[in-house]
């Protein structure tokens, strides 16, 4: 349990209000969250996680819009599509609700030239991250902080989403999710303006260690010396709409847009803000997660893989329509 024994200074109270206001303002939908992460990275290039978060959040938006695209509308029932959307949205919202106050506190710490991370507890951020931010302030280990944030955010959504009884029963044990999971359809893609796709996938998505491993592998791809500038160029040149046409328009072989724009498809979802328990109080595996080696078992260039998967989905849709 977090202890609030020291009275806050007036300036600290004002800072908390500013951060709460900004977090609420930008945590409205996937588009706003993605753009906020990207803009923060442009202010603080040493906080690598913010760029990773922006690119992964793009993928969340693409996954949301897939559900109302021409393929998934044919193969997944409306109620299941709604549940999947709400699951993506809840996880996307929760991560931002936890992470953005951390980013803003770092930003204002740099302005004040002193660490303000003791205020993280007022946003119910894990003590684990308060310790990590203080370490970062002293030692400037960018990769350590990147890994810390990957570990933290995956634990934030573990109990609230992955282990939540409703999501667990109605989503993560559903046939559409299990098929996607088994066939590695759930992949995180990093596009380039050359029409190339890089990325990685994971199965057993409900396993927190698997997702942390995925996050570390994705970070190693995103910040690869030879590739980073390509992903950054895409991020800066491409407005995030939620449609996969954001990157498909760069393909050498021209394709039509088959997925919609997010803000023309989904309403703003109002989320319940529930007090979060500190995940670190229940788990003590952070050492293991830090030390896991980064291994790419499969190729990271996924352009051909993506084309093949799209053809498989189209074929499956055509067969399903024959029997309807």
TrEMBL record:
<protein>
    <submittedName>
        <fullName>DUF2515 domain-containing protein</fullName>
    </submittedName>
</protein>
<dbReference type="Pfam" id="PF10720">
    <property type="entry name" value="DUF2515"/>
</dbReference>
<dbReference type="InterPro" id="IPR019658">
    <property type="entry name" value="DUF2515"/>
</dbReference>
């Amino acid at each position: 349990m977090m202890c609030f024994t020291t009275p806050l200074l007036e300036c600290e109270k004002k800072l908390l209000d500013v951060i709460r206001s900004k977090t609420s303002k930008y945590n409205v939908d996937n588009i706003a969250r993605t753009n906020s992460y990207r803009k923060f990275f442009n202010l603080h290039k040493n906080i690598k996680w913010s760029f990773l978060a922006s690119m992964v959040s793009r993928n969340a938006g693409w996954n949301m819009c897939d559900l109302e695209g021409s393929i998934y509308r044919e193969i997944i029932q409306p109620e299941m599509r709604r549940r999947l959307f709400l699951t993506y949205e809840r996880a996307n919202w929760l991560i931002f609700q936890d992470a953005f106050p951390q980013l803003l506190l770092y930003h204002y710490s740099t302005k004040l030239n002193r660490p303000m991370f003791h205020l993280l507890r007022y946003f119910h951020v894990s003590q684990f991250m308060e310790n990590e931010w203080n370490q970062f302030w002293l030692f400037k280990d960018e990769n350590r902080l990147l890994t810390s944030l990957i570990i933290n955010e995956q634990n934030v959504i573990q109990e609230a989403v992955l282990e939540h009884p409703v999501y667990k029963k109605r989503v993560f044990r559903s046939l559409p999710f299990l098929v996607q999971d088994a066939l590695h359809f759930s992949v995180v893609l990093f596009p380039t303006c050359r029409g190339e796709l890089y990325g990685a996938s994971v199965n057993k998505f409900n396993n927190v260690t698997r997702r942390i491993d995925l996050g570390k592998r994705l970070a190693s791809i995103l910040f690869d010396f030879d590739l980073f500038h390509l992903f950054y160029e895409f991020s800066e040149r491409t407005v995030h709409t939620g449609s996969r046409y954001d990157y498909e328009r760069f393909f050498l072989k021209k394709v039509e847009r088959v997925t919609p724009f997010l803000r023309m498809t989904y309403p703003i979802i109002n989320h319940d803000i529930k007090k979060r328990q500190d995940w670190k109080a229940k788990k003590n595996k952070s050492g293991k997660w830090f030390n896991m080696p980064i291994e790419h078992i499969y190729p990271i260039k996924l352009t051909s893989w993506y084309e093949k998967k799209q053809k498989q989905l189209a074929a499956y849709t055509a067969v399903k329509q024959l029997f309807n």
